[in-house]
Design a protein that fits this description.
single chain, 3 helices, flat
């Protein structure tokens, strides 16, 4: 049930511009590549995944700081 003050549903264009969406897509590609036998070194996968998460957290922090 939707609340009275809720926003209208987001369009696909807005969703495709979301940093959360692209972070999720990147992590899914890395996971699938490792899972389907592309012979990725687990340390490389961990480094990429950790790097993506760290970049995401840093960018969100910067954006929050600029908004204030």
């Amino acid at each position: 049930m939707m609340a009275e003050n809720s926003e209208s549903p987001r369009s696909w264009r807005d969703r495709l511009q979301s940093r959360k969406w692209w972070t999720t897509i990147g992590m899914a590609i890395i996971t699938l590549a490792a899972g389907f036998g592309f012979n990725l070194d687990p340390e490389v996968v961990l480094s990429i995944a950790g790097g993506l998460c760290a970049i995401y957290v840093a960018v969100e922090g910067i954006i929050d700081a600029v908004k204030k």
